[in-house]
Amino acid sequence: MNHQAIFKSFSQLTDIPELEWHYLKSKIKWHSVRKGDLLVQAGEVSDRIYFCHSGVFRMFYLKEDGDEFNKSFVQEGQFFTSYSSVISSIPSYFAIQALENAVVASFTYKVLLQLYERHHCWEVVGRKLIEQLYIKKETRERQLLLHSAEERYHLFLEEFPGLEDRITQYHIASYLGISPVSLSRIRGQLSCKSLI
Amino acid sequence: MNHQAIFKSFSQLTDIPELEWHYLKSKIKWHSVRKGDLLVQAGEVSDRIYFCHSGVFRMFYLKEDGDEFNKSFVQEGQFFTSYSSVISSIPSYFAIQALENAVVASFTYKVLLQLYERHHCWEVVGRKLIEQLYIKKETRERQLLLHSAEERYHLFLEEFPGLEDRITQYHIASYLGISPVSLSRIRGQLSCKSLI
DNA sequence: CCTAGAGATTAACCTATGTTAATGATAATG
DNA sequence: CATTATCATTAACATAGGTTAATCTCTAGG
After folding, report:
1. A71 in contact with chain B, both atoms CB, cutoff 8 A
2. Is B140 on the interface with A (CB under 8 A)?
3. Cβ–Cβ < 8 Å for A29, A106
4. What are the residue boundaries of the Cyclic nucleotide-binding domain, all occurrences included (chains A, B) (predicted)?
5. CATH number assigned to the domain covering B1-121
6. Alpha carbons B122 and A126: distance in angstroms, whole number
7. In 3D, which of A147, A151, A50 has the Cα closest to residue A103?
8. Are A133 and B134 contacting, i.e. CB atoms less than 8 angstroms apart?
9. What is the pLDDT of residues A121-139, one digit of tens each?
């Protein structure tokens, strides 16, 4: 399997010595995932960090009454994981599901902790990755608090370009925190406006 | 000034050698802040990490139309900062304001970066602090997506015990993402229910 | 003790979004 | 080609929460 995309993502954060990269490479597992498969189930402790090589994933909460809320999407070239489950060994609050057939790479948190002890560069990688996750979360919180459903739809289009054609409106609406019907109304209004 | 509370908070995360702690202590500044004062202004780049010794702070977004949204509160014994502003040197999206007269300690991000280079323990501290912030953000996002205004009010009472008597309903409502009038309605319904 | 001001409550009305259900469009399958 | 399944749209109605404004309560100052 081709490790180059992962190496590129890591080495954008800090310099990784050849020897260190070689070690990590030996610990990476590759998985093929089919559309609909769950990589992480809600309520289950997860211990792996994933890298999306191809495909689209969603991370979603499931309410007791069956309602789902998409918290985020993952596209090619991104790391993803149920971070709080992994670092605290607690059951994941959310599930991760493939919305297309996909290929992912992964390594365990145990390996990451070993890396931290092996070489300083991995501490930098770990810190910067979590910093990026934090900034994403903060952005998301700001969007939910400050913006209307219609504004959030535009922000979604900017943040996940092209994704609106790969996933259904059900999933977009669930990300925006509104019903698919409501999203359809918003889209309807938009296309009217653009006719004027 | 008394550094003990800060030391305790740090050393819960990992062992800090005496020499390292001594160095950090020399870099810490103390500030007295009066009720209403802004520690960080929206649109301004911030470079300090704060520790709340006494008092209550709010972190809030300001919309163009003057609407405010409280994103979080800080009470005694907590670290706080405009993290994305500090690490990326970008203008802070939100402001930090004292809701009571307060005393805080602070050090700069530059000092934190020096610490990272000095000793491995600080990388652990930095990573664990940001991990905690991340988990808080994730919790908040889950609350905003999954719960009704009434449920979020109960979650607020659990998460910030005692705070409901220190701040006005305006600030609580702004945290919940509803109007003060709506919060009053929720509280009204609750006290009716408890009479039955 | 009286008054002014801040905050909380309550009521009346309005709007955005949810829910349900019917209808349309499109693509996959026998 | 006809059929079915899936997704999107639209309409009708219900409800949560927003807005405004009047009223109430409490506290601090004069």
Report:
1. yes
2. yes
3. yes
4. 12-115
5. 2.60.120.10
6. 13
7. A50
8. yes
9. 999 999 999 999 999 999 9
The yes/no answer on whether domain A4-117 falls in CATH 2.60.40.10 is: no
Spanning CA of B172 to C1' of C3, the rounded length in angstroms is 30
Read off φ and ψ for residue A73, nearest 5 degrees. Answer: -120, 155
Give the model confidence (pLDDT) of A8-58 as tens digits: 999 999 999 999 999 999 999 999 999 999 999 999 999 999 999 999 999
B129 close to B93: Cβ distance less than 8 angstroms: no
**Rounded to 5 degrees, what angle do the CA atoms B57, B63, B69 make?**
35
Residue B168's nearest nucleotide, by CA–C1', is: C7
> What would the pLDDT profile of B100-140 be if each residue is shown by its tens digit?
999 999 999 999 999 999 999 999 999 989 999 999 999 99
A124 vs B contacts (CB less than 8 Å): 123
User: Following DSSP, what letter does each residue of A99-147 receive, concatenated?
Assistant: SS-EEEEEEEHHHHHHHHHH-HHHHHHHHHHHHHHHHHHHHHHHHHHH-
Structure-block tokens of residue A79: 């790391």
Q: Which two tokens stand for residue A96?
A: 């991760």
